[in-house]
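= Tokenised fold =
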Amino acid sequence: MITHWWLNEMPPIPGILRAVFYAGLLVICLVDQPSPLSSAKVIEKTEPEFYTPVGALRLLGIKRVRPRLLTLVARLTVVVWIAAAAGLLQPVTGALTFVGFAFLHAVNAGALGANHSMHSSLYALLCMSFSVSYDFSLDRLLAQHTVWPRLVADDSVLTSGFAPALLLVLLAYTMFAGGVAKVRYGWSGWRDGSALRFYLEQSAPVARWPWISRLVTGSPALCRLAAWGTLVIELGSIAAVFAYEARLPLVLCWVCLHLGILCMMMPAYWAQMWCYLLLLDWPRLVSLVTGGDPGHPAVPAGGAGAVALAGLGCLVVAALLYVLLTESEQWPFTSVPMYSNGTRGADRMALPGRAELHARAVRAARGRHGAWQRAWVDQEYMEDIWVRPADDGAEPRRLFHLLHESGATPPARWSQYAKVVREIAVEDVAAKPADRPEHTPAREYAAARFLREVVPLVRNALPGWERYRALELICRTECGGVVVARAELADRPAEEPVR
């Protein structure tokens, strides 16, 4: 029963769809930024101190990859990608395309914060590694005129519907996890529409269709309706796996949701929308136009290959459930937490008390991300690096913004910068005594070590850095900023932290 579902729930991917999908996704990944295929540029713009290699790379002993090697891997990946689109040496070229893209995607993940826009492409290329279609392929053409070998038989389980079924599970999970994150981290804000309104207002300067953004943000009723519509679409996405009749309407709803985000906010989910092509029942859609037979022969559910694919699919489902329940963000999975905070406005954010910092940090260090809010837009930051001026009467400046305003290049993209600062703050506060989160010169904790490493970057990048005295990592609380770490910019004796 289970094996039959994995092999026959979805129609096999025909050769023409394979070629169109691969070609279109390649164009999107070459044009859309930041893309794994442009990982060399991303890494060049990320300072080592702000790069966080994913666990899979750390297990392989890889901490940072040279841009020149990334460029080579990207070019080789494009070559096998084109071969996979043409149906040459299936399924080897499909598998090599996935391996190359996965490596580049993993490298990128350490420099892009919690960005999940290309996860769907990664999942789709993985699934295509298990799909072989000899119609409309160079394999078939060459085999007809030469002794070119076919690497798998015509009746192989790789010619079944396993690939689109696995992708259906992965993409439905991605949408569902986004809804779960909104309920888990910001239910009250999403319930009354204030969270969506907050994010739309912050995105207004970059909205592609400003008039739609103004229309929605100007009406609390529309914000509430749009927020509830988003939750219904995302939480209802899991029905696409079990209900055939609901599949096409749900996929169309996903596309509409992405288009709404595209018009009113910054993210552009072109790649994810393109991957939905593989979820449509094209034989049935074609039959509605031509009047032909939409059916496809069932693949036998017996045999070692069929059992192996079904087992792989069940393992993926188990991994997704684990990721969702544990709030894990371990690559290549994600629980899709972006834009999930129920923020009602920067001036109405509930800041923690000083006495709460340690307990919250300990829970966050154990993976309970709701204990220590993550910033998806700048106004949500709970911790940051401040630059303390040498003039005691001058106001301190936020480091990232100061670098940007001075025309200097920040050490990483803002999303990665915010992620690193948050993780360092959590690690530092969790390691300190519960009643003393402040910086102490007597012992160097994680944040102080980190700031000491950042000092040379600031000296090299910030014009006139001599006008500033120190870097301070500050955690916001209801009673003001708590300085949890400090590092002098100039070579002079350390002073007591300014509070």
